[in-house]
């Protein structure tokens, strides 16, 4: 079985859904210059061929499992790798990403309460500074 080739319209539809997974087909249609049914048909075709899949995630806060927060970390010089590994080894860390720019590491953590997330952010020994108000992203 050969893979389907996605054209410019398919990519435009996927970019719109990537920006906002709940965007109405009418908005995508207006932005691409096609009818909303064309958008729906193209998306149905991409899911039917397996080129596109949708995944649902359970939101921990709604399940009574605490909060999820994003930490933005600026590391001491030469400590980026050590900081990222230390964050990744923590049981409350869901993901760690290394970046370039003013901030070096982003970590998604889970905590039972917002207060605990803030406390966790304030006590990172390998970090020069951490964005002091972790924002809940879910």
From TrEMBL:
The keyword Transcription regulation applies. Residues 6-66 form the HTH asnC-type domain. InterPro entries: AsnC-type_HTH_dom, Tscrpt_reg_AsnC-like, WH-like_DNA-bd_sf, WH_DNA-bd_sf. One of its GO terms (biological process) is response to amino acid. Keywords: DNA-binding, Transcription, Transcription regulation. GO terms for cellular component: cytosol. It comes from the Bacteria. One of its GO terms (molecular function) is sequence-specific DNA binding. This is HTH asnC-type domain-containing protein. It comes from Kitasatospora indigofera.
